[in-house]
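Duplicate of earlier report; Extracellular substrate-binding protein input re-posted below.
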Amino acid sequence: MLKPNRSVADPSRRSLLKAGGAAAIAAALPLRASQAADDKRMTLVSWGGAYRDAVERAVVRPFMEETGIKVTIVDTPDLAKLRAQIQSNNVQWDVFDAPNALGVAGVNAGFWEPLDLSLFDRDDLVVDIQNNLVPWYLFVGGVAWDPRRYPAGKHPRNFAEYFDLQTFPGLRTFRNRPSETLEAALLADGVAPKNLYPLDVDRAFRALDRIKPKVVKWVEQTPQSLTLLQTGEADFSYSYASRVRPAQASGQSVDFSFDQTIAGFEYLAVVKNAPNKRAAMRFVAYAARPQCQAAFMELLGNAPGSRKARSLMSADALKWIPDLQSDKVVLMNDAWWTKNFDAITLRFKEWSLS
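Output:
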């Protein structure tokens, strides 16, 4: 497993983060003149809510200021829509913000353009670029709740408790995809993290059968994982540290448990036949810079894919990054999902509709 570097920025670098702001830091290193392109616009398909605000503030705006390339952000990456665009020769997206399962599914489908590897400092990345996917950061999923409605002892803190409908009655959410969901089900059913892969798919679906009647929403759009808590439509939710941290900062009543979490890589990919491929390549390379990742993760609290970025992050942001060596964290196995995602996704969709 990866061992996070937990070093904290020295005072001068912390001051740079605070004084200069995300835009100044993300723009600190200019792109090489040799990488200049004719493209003056591009489209990023990403995720909404506070996450989109952070992407725009820490990455998109400073990129546009430095390059003059206009970036349009579209919410909710969807492989089915992307497939339709590619098959109809009407590709509308340039860069795809892909959680691990969508990234590897796109690899299987041939949806990603070959990357110009000369644009990247590959020694700085916690894992190398493979299959045309740039490892942007590590996300962390787990149990979230409203502490005003459910104080200590009244809410689940791990997946076994999340699946315990007698001790913790109420409505739940889960993502509308098998990745993360099957891992959570097996952890809830008593499988030890070290024995999780290869996933026992039949056992996972049996565990999900028990909780299915209480899943109020199979979440497609990530912000819903917290919105449903705020509106009272869900009692507990499968959400992300990167959603809870900015929500707390804005004064919302929400909390997140690190007692048991699932971590996975978020990737950036350039879409096959992207209409603005050169601009897309520049954007992905820009987003991978340590300064840019530090500014982005400072707003969210995820673990950056850049080694150098950690030393630029504040102590408060680093508190939200879990120790990947701990048994409390399961790092998703992308190699296993690459081989199995398509077949299990079909089974999951049929099961969720039955």
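The chain has two domains: 41-138+265-335, 141-261+342-353.

Merging into the original ticket.
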